[in-house]
TrEMBL record:
It comes from Babjeviella inositovora NRRL Y-12698. Keywords: Dioxygenase, Iron, Metal-binding, Oxidoreductase. The keyword tRNA-binding does not apply. Coiled coil: none annotated. This is TauD/TfdA-like domain-containing protein.
Length: 410
């Protein structure tokens, strides 16, 4: 435990990290620097895990006897904004697995019993394949399919967390969150478990969901934001709990050429979900990490243009007056949220009760929204692995999806 630090020392320099508190000279705590940080370590909640989740963990040797889930030790969780900003700020070389895949995807489709396009523009379900048995050739073809169809689903999966992680590592650097709950011993596998939020005192109601039931794109504040996210749900409500995805390619194609042209080359500021203290302004509360990315980005695999904004994390368009930015962003959010023809709504139910369902989606070209209509009346639990993508870029030579496919532009 670090000793509390008197205010004037703090203001002179906050170079030291992981202080517990800033106090005045009388020892009165002015800022509790641990405020909002999880306790760290393992939670005593394993007994609340759904039976299907426990069975999966037991089968694949995930030991929850020492507690579940796990968060990094509190002293390893960033206190200050600059520490959080430094996480993965240096970049990493991205390998595009879909780039050289067979455009016909013969290895993947040939091994499936059925390939179902759920809507015209977004969402494909593959039947009869086990994700943990895919060859690298099939994995490459799946990466291409995700890049084209935005989100791909697999029901009835017998998937170990370890194999889920391995697939994620194949697709890119796996995100390890500085403070999110994860599987014990596997910080690259985060947890989606509404019961956990309830236990942490974050209780959603029918009128107000406080968790994932809002339109967003995962991890857009990262230096190299999320590419493919793979969520495997191993406990699924019998009724409800659907998730909706909307396509960024189609959202771009919904805009007028004049608005497309206005947005091309512009950037926006994206904020993090978690907050940290500003070393230069510690007395004024916690702030979000901010990063700047193109609003129209080109997908490295398909070369298609996509609208890259989301209501939860896109804060403002760079170069515009605040009022202008607000009006334009509100319009752009609405393009995703209001056009049902560019969305797919998916119900996760497996056909065999003891198996799980996987969704793999591309965050570069989509937003999603998890519907909370089951209101914790039934358990839901999933493990999530996120593979980070390339540094976002806009190529002025790139085409839109509809241009490339020869579809009507009006
Ligand atoms: Fe999400």
């Amino acid at each position: 435990m670090s000793p509390p630090t008197a205010t004037e020392d703090v203001i002179v320099s906050l170079k030291a990290t992981n202080l517990d508190a800033i106090t005045d000279n009388g020892g009165q705590i002015l800022v509790d620097l641990k405020k909002g940080k999880p306790k760290g370590g393992r939670s005593p909640l394993a007994h609340l895990l759904p039976p299907t989740t426990l069975a999966r963990f037991e089968k694949y040797g995930i030991d929850v006897s020492q507690g579940y889930p796990e968060v990094p030790p509190q002293e390893k969780i960033p206190t200050f904004l600059d520490e959080a900003f430094a996480v993965r700020n240096e970049g990493y070389p991205y390998v595009d697995r879909g780039k050289n895949a067979d455009p016909e995807k013969k290895a993947l489709f040939g091994a499936a019993t059925e390939v179902i396009h759920l809507t015209k523009h977004i969402g494909t379900e593959i039947v009869g394949l086990q994700l943990q048995a895919l060859t690298n050739q099939q994995r490459d073809e799946l990466a291409l399919l995700i890049a084209e169809r935005v989100v791909v689903f697999f029901r009835d999966q017998d998937l170990s967390p370890q194999k889920q992680l391995e697939l994620g590592e194949y697709y890119g650097q796996v995100e390890k969150h500085p403070q999110a709950q994860h599987l014990p011993g596997h910080d690259g596998i985060t947890i989606i478990w509404p019961e956990l939020f309830l236990q942490l005192g974050i209780s959603s109601t029918f009128k107000q969901s406080k968790t994932t039931a809002r339109w967003h794109t995962d991890l857009t504040h990262e230096h190299q934001p999320a590419g493919i996210t793979h969520l495997h749900n191993d406990a699924i409500p019998k009724v409800g709990g659907d998730t909706v995805w909307a396509s960024g390619y189609a959202a771009f194609d919904k805009l007028s050429p004049a608005l497309q042209e206005f947005l091309e080359g512009k950037t926006a500021i994206f904020k993090s979900a978690h907050t940290y203290f500003d070393r230069n302004d510690p007395l004024n509360g916690k702030k979000q990490v901010e990063r700047e990315h193109p609003i129209i980005r080109t997908h490295p695999t398909t070369g298609w243009k996509s609208l890259f904004v989301n209501r939860t994390y896109t804060d403002r368009i760079v170069g515009l007056e605040p009022g202008e930015s607000e009006v334009i962003l509100e319009y752009l959010f609405g393009v995703f949220e209001k056009n049902l023809d560019i969305q797919v709504r998916f119900n996760w139910k497996p056909t065999k009760a003891d198996l799980g369902t996987s969704a793999l989606w591309d965050n570069r070209i989509s937003q999603h929204n998890a519907i909370w209509d089951y209101e914790n009346s039934e358990p839901r639990h999933g493990t999530r692995v996120t593979s980070l993508g390339e540094l976002p870029f806009y190529d002025s030579e790139s085409k839109s999806q509809r241009q490339s496919l020869g579809l009507s532009l009006v």
